Predict the structure.
Amino acid sequence: MLAISMDGIVRTAQMASYARAGYPVLSDQSGTVVRDYGVYNLLGDMLAAPATFLIRRDMTIAWQHIGKDVSDRPTPSDILTRIRQLQP
């Protein structure tokens, strides 16, 4: 599991520390990854829309949730349910 932020490295590290993230939080200040995943500027704010992707080992997207606004995010329970559904 990892998170990607469009903030710079310092701000990303501060946010990860504040959120007590127990996983890597990577900086994508150039927006390359968010553009590749099609979630850049969907809300007209020149930022990445909140998005969650579950990616299979073969690098295909198994499930995704792309937020309709900044607070539209799946709960941890929702994500865990999706992960369980994907397991053989």
About this structure: The longest strand covers residues 61-66. The chain has a mean pLDDT of 94. The chain is about 30% helix and 20% strand. The radius of gyration is 13 Å.
